[in-house]
Design goal:
The complex is a heterodimer of chains A (266) and B (284). Chain A is mainly α. Chain A has 10 helices and 2 strands; from the N terminus they run αααααββααααα. In chain A, α2 crosses α7 and α2 packs parallel to α10. Chain B contains 11 helices and 10 strands. Chain B has a 6-stranded mixed beta sheet. Chain B has a 4-stranded antiparallel beta sheet with strand order 2-1-4-5, with no helix packed on it. In chain B, α3 runs parallel beside α5. At the A-B interface, α8 and α9 of A face α2, α3 and α5 of B.
């Protein structure tokens, strides 16, 4: 459970952490677009360099980014196999038991893999440096224009932020119940299928009852403090753009422009 | 065989930017057959310490001996089941671990996992339930229908039914009313006195610790700062101040009596004992 890196917030203080979540969200979209446009390798290299600098500013360390790649390994192998079976252009690179693997197949795969890795790094950078609650505030702000067509932007953001807020709580409860059941001799890792089912049951049933209990408590607490859905509310935490946020978005725009330009002029 | 912590450290989220050393080189021998309290402020590492006792957590550095088992940092454990049978852990708010359809089935769940035959497991469950004060007409009820206090008793019975040699209690009475708390504590004390079970109690309740526990372990920020007889710790004003702890009421009372001219020993830990010592002096 603790090995989940992708999407985990790292509560430290850094320049990246201080940026406005809206600026980071906009930056994320710009950068992902910038990753999907180029057709030449060296543009990726430039983007990777910029990312490395951003990582240094975020103080989260390369190790964590590398760990977030781990779940992707299977997908990359799968991609390579599919590409090797379908792409038959370019020179033959090597033979596996009478089956030819072509150069284009390998390079196509690498291309997609590099794009995916860059994308994951960018997303990890966002989620690692942005408190989930700030992130939902940012999403709410981005969804605001949709309120014109009666999209419940605030309610959606509230639901998302409650869900995010309770992930660590539920994980904590899960760990506690798991520990309690392990102490009663449950083995969550080994055992026959019937034993595994009973092990999972001993976790799920208490977890559900805890989750419902929490939900009722939260509903009561919100009502007691006068929460009415759909009513206009003021905020305790008001987001403010500052100079560095504009600078950050400007840099992202520059990178996107550079990557688009690379397709036309180089 | 006592419980021996040897230079044991535990680090949460090792290799991450926010790694946190929860236990720092703990060297500690816990006496067998005694009642030992583990106290310390929130975040001092109490729960982390006791979760090592049945290998829910494995040491990052150092080692630990419990009964005949040895747990070393970086080694895979082969004897988890027998260890967990012998060391029973009752968690904070243990009522949340109930899940079976009926009370008796839930209590028998542990014994079944540890290899007791179904008939014997049910017998043990019934005995344990009677011990914690759950009446027979509640055996076939769903545990989720019980009150909070009763749920806690059922959860505790679930551990007692496994017949552990060492019982570890993490804040066993948190959230219970005073009468319920006393009943639960008395039950465990009698298990210690009659069956010789080693008890390790994590607690915030200094009064309880002073009244019942032979030895006390004090943790502060992951370090062991005191281990010794409970009465010695609570008689030492300097130490209490250093550890930011309040004197138990009975100690304050004893001190005031001493100020007013009575000679009272450290062993006088209850009203009765104080009264007896005074009676002796008055007779003379």
């Amino acid at each position: 459970m603790n090995n989940l890196v992708f999407g985990k917030y790292i509560p430290i203080d850094s320049l990246m952490h201080k940026l406005d979540p809206r600026a980071k969200l906009i930056g994320l979209f710009l950068m992902i677009a910038a990753v999907f446009v180029p057709k030449s390798w060296w543009v990726f290299l430039v983007i990777a360099l910029v990312l490395t600098v951003a990582l240094l500013f975020a103080k989260i360390g390369i190790k964590m980014i590398v760990q977030s790649f781990k779940p992707m390994i299977m997908m990359m192998i799968f991609l390579l196999v599919i590409n090797s079976l379908t792409v038959k252009t370019g020179d033959v690179m090597f033979m596996i038991g009478g089956f030819a693997v072509y150069k284009d197949a390998v390079f196509n795969t690498l291309f997609v893999v590099v794009r995916l890795l860059l994308m994951i790094s960018i997303t990890t950078l966002l989620t690692a440096t942005t408190n989930p609650l700030d992130l939902t505030l940012g999403i709410e702000w981005l969804l605001k224009p949709l309120e014109a067509v009666h999209f419940p932007a605030h309610e959606v953001a509230m639901m998302v932020s409650i869900a995010l807020r309770f992930i660590p709580t539920i994980i904590e409860e899960t760990m506690r119940i798991m520990n309690a059941q392990k102490s009663r001799g449950v083995d969550f890792e080994n055992g026959r299928l019937s034993e595994k089912i009973s092990a999972i049951l001993s976790l799920i049933v208490p977890l559900f009852s805890v989750a419902f209990e929490r939900a009722y408590e939260l509903a009561d607490a919100m009502e007691a403090r006068g929460y009415v859905p759909g009513v206009k509310r003021t905020r305790y935490h008001v987001l403010k753009f500052s100079f560095r946020d504009f600078l950050f978005i400007f840099i992202c725009v520059l990178i996107l422009a550079f990557s688009i330009a690379s397709r036309f002029y180089l | 065989m006592p419980i021996k912590f040897k230079a044991l450290s535990y680090i949460y989220n090792k290799d991450m930017p926010y790694a946190h050393k929860a236990l720092d080189h703990i060297d500690l021998d816990i006496r067998e057959g005694a009642i030992t309290a583990v106290i310390g402020e929130t975040g001092s590492g109490k729960s982390t310490l006791v979760e090592h006792l049945n290998a829910l957590l494995l040491p990052s550095e150092g080692s630990l001996e419990v009964l005949d088992y040895e747990i070393k940092a970086g080694e895979k454990q082969k004897f988890l089941k027998p260890l967990r049978k012998d060391v029973g852990l009752v968690f904070q708010f243990s009522e949340y671990q109930l899940f079976e359809e009926t009370v008796i089935k839930d209590v028998a769940f542990g014994p079944l996992n540890f290899g007791y035959a179904p008939q014997e497991a049910l017998q043990r469950a019934a005995d344990a339930l009677k011990m914690v004060g759950i009446k027979e007409d509640h055996f076939e009820v769903s545990p989720l229908e019980l009150s909070g206090g009763q749920k806690r008793r059922v959860a505790i019975a679930g551990i007692i039914a496994c017949d552990p040699k060492i019982i570890v209690l993490d804040e066993p009475t948190a959230g219970l009313d005073p009468k319920g708390s006393k009943e639960i504590i008395d039950l465990f004390i009698s298990l210690n006195k009659t069956q010789g079970k080693t008890l390790i109690i994590v607690s915030h309740d200094n009064e309880m610790v002073y009244n019942y526990c032979d030895d006390t372990v004090v943790l502060s920020k992951g370090k062991l700062v005191y281990h010794g007889p409970t009465d010695e710790l609570f008689a030492d004003k300097e130490k209490l101040k250093e550890f930011n702890m309040l004197e138990p009421q009975i100690v304050s009372f004893r001190n005031e009596l001493i100020e007013r001219g009575f000679t009272l020993s450290r062993q006088a830990r209850t009203l009765e004992q104080i009264a007896q010592e005074i009676a002796k002096q008055v007779k003379r």
